[in-house]
Recover the amino acids of this structure.
């Protein structure tokens, strides 16, 4: 079996385990000598043997603990590295991929953790322990060594077969979990659509089907776990029983074995089988973890978004050269040339579905164009999206992003006429946002999203429907604020409400694959 660990660490793990097992065997040797001396009244330097026995037992405990600590540290570092690879890969183009990425990061990667923290160390520890114990037993009692050598392969062989089936079921379970999570999140986002289109029965049926499938795959995995545990105990008891029978026959009938040898064999044999038993259990868990990691690996290895189309300009905020943008098979922008000024407000209008938001995402680097070149002035870009998800945080933490003090946050909220509404909340700016639940109206949430971006005063501000849900009075207030802000920054805004055109310096219309200058307001 190929382990996902470097040869250097395999060697180091093996050396620590070997030192630990050698200490245990030496401990068993001296313990057997001491008991033989007590029972059979043989000559022995008792104080010296007790000293050696204590020293080797202590060394065994220390090296075994060292092995556990070291392997867990290495495993956690490896998991962190894989998490970083996942985070680096968050350039996904759809919400479905985003949700699968978060499932991989928060669920599947954690389910995989036991593979590196427990399974790999157990495989190495058991392999070294089995080899050393059999080697020792062949020197002590060749018959007992032969019994162990004959019975040992049955445990790993059985668990290889069970583990392979477990991994396959685990992949199905992880896939089903992703489907349930994605469907549930889409249901939450589209609950109004479900209600208005009377689709409750269809959505409920889909959720029930996925849930039943998830339970079915889980029960299959549990079935394999129970079967493997029963067989494991049976083979272990049988192996130890055969060794005990061999010892009993040689003591009672053949009378050709010493107390020392008999006790030493009976001390090492259970340790041998216990190691294989632990290996069997962990093999099942390891394959279960690998099933989850298959989902992680698929996302880590997926092709990264090509960013070669993005260059840098010095004269304009954004410039497009022969730019073609598509979504699925639909061409939204076809071989367009355009430029947006680095100071002022550029408004973009067009029919619904024309590709306005997709153009903004291309400027942000979130959507790869089909062809052409896109040059951007700077990476200092703020984005006010028409959709945003609040993590479990507070209003202050959301707006400040950990970079601004409370007075600065209160000032930007005052500028956007949000201060009174938030001050009326029980905890003011420190009101928690839990499960995406924020005690503000739709228009207030729009302004809160704007506050998070505007407090940074970036060189380029991209806005998608910035005055959506705003009443006339608040819209005028936001327009006044943007009129002041555009004196020092480039504001690129997709708009539906024509009032915002009155403060726009440039107006473009996206239609029929072209981006053309529109009429001023």
């Amino acid at each position: 079996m190929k382990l996902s660990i470097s040869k250097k660490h395999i060697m180091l793990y093996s050396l620590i385990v070997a030192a630990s097992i050698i200490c245990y065997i030496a401990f068993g040797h001296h313990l057997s000598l001491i008991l033989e001396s007590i029972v059979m009244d043989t000559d022995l330097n008792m104080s010296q043997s007790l000293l050696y026995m204590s020293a080797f037992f202590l060394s065994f405990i220390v090296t075994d603990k060292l092995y556990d600590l070291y392997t867990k540290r290495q495993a956690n570092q490896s998991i962190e590295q894989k998490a970083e690879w996942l985070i680096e890969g968050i350039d996904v183009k759809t919400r479905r991929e985003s949700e699968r990425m978060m499932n991989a990061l928060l669920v599947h990667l954690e389910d995989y953790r036991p593979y590196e923290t427990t399974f790999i160390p157990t495989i190495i520890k058991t392999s070294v322990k089995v080899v050393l114990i059999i080697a020792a037993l062949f020197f002590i009692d060749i018959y007992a060594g032969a019994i162990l050598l004959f019975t040992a392969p049955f445990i790993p062989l059985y668990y290889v077969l069970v583990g392979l089936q477990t991994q396959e079921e685990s992949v199905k379970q992880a896939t089903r979990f992703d489907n349930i999570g994605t469907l549930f999140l889409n249901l939450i986002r589209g609950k109004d659509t479900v209600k208005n289109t009377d689709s409750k029965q269809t959505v409920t049926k889909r959720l029930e089907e996925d849930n039943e499938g998830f339970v079915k795959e889980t029960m299959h995995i549990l079935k394999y776990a129970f079967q493997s545990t029963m067989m494991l105990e049976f083979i272990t008891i049988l192996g130890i029983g055969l060794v005990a029978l061999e010892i009993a026959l040689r003591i009672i009938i053949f009378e050709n074995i010493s107390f020392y040898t008999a006790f030493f064999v009976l001390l090492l044999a259970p340790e041998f089988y216990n190691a294989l038993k632990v290996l069997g259990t962990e093999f099942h868990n390891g394959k279960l973890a690998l099933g989850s990691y298959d989902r992680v690996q698929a996302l880590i290895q997926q092709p990264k978004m090509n960013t070669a189309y993005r260059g840098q300009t010095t004269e304009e905020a954004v410039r497009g050269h022969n730019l073609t943008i598509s979504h699925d098979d639909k061409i939204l922008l076809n071989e367009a040339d355009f430029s947006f000024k680095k100071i002022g407000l550029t408004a973009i209008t067009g029919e619904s579905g024309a590709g306005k938001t997709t153009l903004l995402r291309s400027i942000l680097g979130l959507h790869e164009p089909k062809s052409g070149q896109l040059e951007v002035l700077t990476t200092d870009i703020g984005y006010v999206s028409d959709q945003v998800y609040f993590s479990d945080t507070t209003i202050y933490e959301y707006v400040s992003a950990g970079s601004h003090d409370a007075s600065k946050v209160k000032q930007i909220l005052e500028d956007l006429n949000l201060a009174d509404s938030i001050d009326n909340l029980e905890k003011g700016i420190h009101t928690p946002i839990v499960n995406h639940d924020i005690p503000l109206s739709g228009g207030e949430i729009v302004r809160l999203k704007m506050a998070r971006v505007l407090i940074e005063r970036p060189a380029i501000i991209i806005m998608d429907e910035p005055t959506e849900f705003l009443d006339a009075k608040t819209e005028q207030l936001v327009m006044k604020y943007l009129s002041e802000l555009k004196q020092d920054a480039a504001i690129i805004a997709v708009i539906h409400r024509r009032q915002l055109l009155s403060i726009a310096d440039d107006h473009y219309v996206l239609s029929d694959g072209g981006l053309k200058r529109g009429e001023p307001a």
